[in-house]
Structures are given as C-alpha cells and as structure tokens.
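Hey, quick one: can you model this chain's 3D structure?
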Amino acid sequence: MTSKNTTAARINSGPGRMLVAVYGLLGLAATGRSIMQIAQTWPDQHLPYWLSAVAAVVYLVATVALARGDRASARVALATISFELFGVIAVGIWSYADKAAFVAQGSAGDTTVWSKFGQGYGYVPLILPILGLWWLRHNLNRPGRA
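Sure thing. Here's the predicted structure for all 146 residues.
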C-alpha cells in the first residue's frame, strides 16, 4: 500500500466518512436554500442570501477535499474548514449585533445558514468545523504520515 493510499484511508475512515456525509448534506441543504432565496427575491438581493451561497460553496469544497483524502486535499480541507469556522463565528456575532441585516421583507429572520451560529440547523454549522479541524489535525500529526 502506498503512502497516498494510507493517507486517504486514514482521513476517509471511521469518523472521516461521517464528516464527508455531513458536509455533503449541509452542502446540498445550503445550495438549495441559497438558490431558492436568491431566485425568489431576484433582483432585490439581500446579503444573507449570498452568505448562504458562500456557505454552500465552502461545504461542497470541504466535502470533496475530505472525500479525496490525499495530502493536497487535506490542506484544502484545512483551509476551507478554517474559513468556515471564521465565517460561522463572524456571521453569528453579526446576526446578533445587527438583527435588521438578517431579516428580509416577509421573512422571520435567520436568513443564512450561519446566522446565530447555525441555530436554524441545530448549531451543526458551529460544531462541524471544530470536529473537522480536530479530525484533520489528529490525522495530519500521526507518526508515519507521508
């Protein structure tokens, strides 16, 4: 077995498979949400809807990077998931500080995946990058890792 296959097996095995599945699910959910929000309000766009689109791209890139599992993909996943954590925290704080920015006309609010730290998604958007970063760090620091 080559070191590339060993690397992929470590990142893609056990909890790594669950991370790929959850990131994929959130990617699909955020993509659907952002497409519907943007299509229904065109041409009057609201920033939170575009933030949902950014979240969708982040989740999809992280999904592919985690699923591939090679060293370069692990670096992409690390950067993407770090950006995700920053985004969840920044948008979470912003959504509490400026509630009016996250309420579109005819909406009850929470118009982005990352609003209120992912409250509308059971705080999974806040917990997932922490678990993802832990998993990557755990696997990248293993002895014998190529």
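One thing worth noting: Helices lie at 3-12, 15-41, 47-68, 71-97, 124-140.
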